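Collaborator request, handled under Task 6.
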Amino acid sequence: MRLDDAMAVAKEQISPGTGEDDAGFSLSECRAVATLPATDIERACRFYAEKLGLTATPGAAPGHYLYRCGGATFALYETPGRASGTHNQMAFSVSDLETVVRQLKARGVFFTGDIAEDERTRTAWFKDSEGNLLMVREILACPAPNWVAPASLTAGSG
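Structure tokens returned to the collaborator:
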């Protein structure tokens, strides 16, 4: 990605439409971007380049780098704080989990256990150089189109 393209991505912002009373406010039209902390930004950029095959472009601030993956964007940013590494921080959706795991292992990525499988997904987890817990996931089946989110997921949204 060229620097001009990266800056365009960094500037892409959509303001939510609102009425005079802001009753219609929603972030549903805004682009969401995952951000991952890095205590050593050079080491992190090397990990993402060498292990995952991704290319960084400078972000909007010093110590920030953007990555484009499958139409989505995520950012690495330099910070003295460390990731807890105890929960999923980002996922990569893949069509052939075994092949991706094999290829990443060949590049030196260490996975944190066996592949987990349920009736809908197969997942493998690994940590980046900064301790961020990442996953690669193959989706085997999606909910039916008429699936309704549980009330706990929609509470307060309407």
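The cover message to the collaborator said: "The longest helix spans residues 41-50. The chain is about 20% helix and 25% strand. Please let us know whether this matches your experimental observations."
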